[in-house]
Amino acid sequence: MTGPQRILIVEDEPLIAMMLEDFLDVLGKAMAGTADSVAEALALIDSVAIDAAILDVNLRGGEKSWPIADALAAKGVPFVLATGGSTDSIAEAHRDRPTLPKPFTMDGVARALDALLPA
Fold first, then answer.
1. CA distance linking residue 53 with residue 74, whole number of Å
2. What's the pLDDT tens digit per position in 31-68?
3. Is-above-0.90 flag for pTM?
4. CB–CB of 102/82 below 8 Å?
5. DSSP string across 44-104
6. SS3 for 15?
7. Burial label, 58 (beta-carbon count in 10 A; 0-12, 13-18, 19+)
8. SS3 per-residue string spanning 49-62
9. Distance between CA atoms of 107 and 91, rounded to whole angstroms?
10. Quick one: which of 31, 41, 56, 90 could link to 68 by a disulfide (CB 3.0–4.6 Å)?
11. Angle at the Cα of 100 (from 98 to 104), degrees rounded to 5?
C-alpha cells in the first residue's frame, strides 16, 4: 500500500465520522483517531502517530479547524480539508491544501488521500 496509512478524522457529526471510518477500512487505512473538537484533535496530535488527517472545516459550536491545521502543518503532517461550502471559506494559510467536498464518496476520499502523495 502507498500513501498515508494512519489517518486522523476530525468530524463533529458522528454518523459522518463512522462513514469515513468505514471508507478508510475499505481503502486499507488505519484510524489514528477521531475527534469532534479542536481540543480533542490537538490532544490526539500530541499523543498518537498520524500520517495524514481529514479535517471538517466547520465544527460544532462555531469552531473552525484552523488551529488543528496549523498544528498538523507545523509537524509536517499532510491533511485534506472537508467542506460542504465553497472553498472561499478556507483560511488563506491553507488554501493550497487538497479539499474533500461533501457529501463524501469512497472515490472522493481515495482521491483526496492520493492528493497527499508527493508529486
1. 13
2. 999 999 999 999 999 999 999 999 999 999 999 999 99
3. yes
4. yes
5. HHHHS--SEEEEESB-GGG-BSHHHHHHHHHHT--EEEEESS-GGGS-GGGTTS-EEESSP
6. helix
7. middle
8. CCCEEEEECECHHH
9. 25
10. 41
11. 160
Within 10 Å of residue 106's Cβ, how many Cβ atoms? 14
Host H or E run for residue 33: strand 30-35
Contact 29, 7 (CB under 8 A): yes
Residue 113 grid coordinates: 488521500
Place of cell 508529486: 119
For residues 104 and 100, give the distance between their C-alpha atoms in angstroms, rounded to a whole number. Answer: 7
Q: How far apart are CA 69 and CA 89, in angstroms?
A: 14
* pLDDT number for residue 50: 96
Which pLDDT score, from 0 to 100, does residue 34 have? 97
